Amino acid sequence: MGIEAIDHWVLVVKDLETTFTFYRKRGLEAGWQERPGGRGARPIIRISETQTLNLYVVDRYEIESPTFAPRYATVWADSCLRWNGSGQEARSFLKQAGIPGLHEPAARSGALGPGTSLYVRDPDDNLIELITYGDPEHR
Q1: Nearest Cα to Cα of residue 12 among 124, 128, 119
Q2: What whole-number distance in Å separates Cα of residue 123 and Cα of residue 121?
Q3: One-letter-per-residue 3-state SS of 73-94
Q4: Distance between CA atoms of 128 and 53, rounded to whole angstroms?
């Protein structure tokens, strides 16, 4: 037994609707998920059936999360999402959604080895990397 995957990670954001819109433009489900025990709904971004980004609004994080991360208001997230397609397809998808990439797709290394990555920033300046593996342009 041991760690097998990332289940979720938390983003502390300034504005939920702006964050929802950004991630919806990237093709992800963004909205509310019921919490167990009748504790109401929480804002999430669904990455897959088994992975989410859980969201907290910066002004409410300490109140709503009894185990909040120290210095959350000064530390940004840097995460990488696996993209199913080529680097150019990721770039085209983002361009069509009106989300500027920080550079052209480039050769990088990820959890599965060599890949092709493209970076963007979300509305809270978190760095989001899209990585694809097996891209013929960057082998």
Answers
A1: 124
A2: 7
A3: CCCCCEEEEECCCCHHHHHHHH
A4: 12
How many of the other CB atoms lie within 10 Å of CB of 58? 13
**Interatomic CA distance for residues 8 and 99, integer angstroms:** 23
Q: What is the pTM of this model?
A: 0.69
Q: How far is 53 from 48, CA to CA, in rounded Å?
A: 10
Q: Per residue in 64-100, pLDDT tens?
A: 666 666 666 665 677 888 888 888 888 898 899 898 8
Distance between alpha carbon 83 and the CA centroid of its chain, in Å?
12
Q: Mean pLDDT for each consecutive 10-residue tract of the chain (139 residues)?
A: 70 91 93 80 88 83 65 70 85 89 84 83 84 74
Sequence-ordered list of residues with C-beta below 8 angstroms from that of 53, at least 6 positions apart, any chain: 8, 9, 10, 11, 23, 44, 45, 47, 79
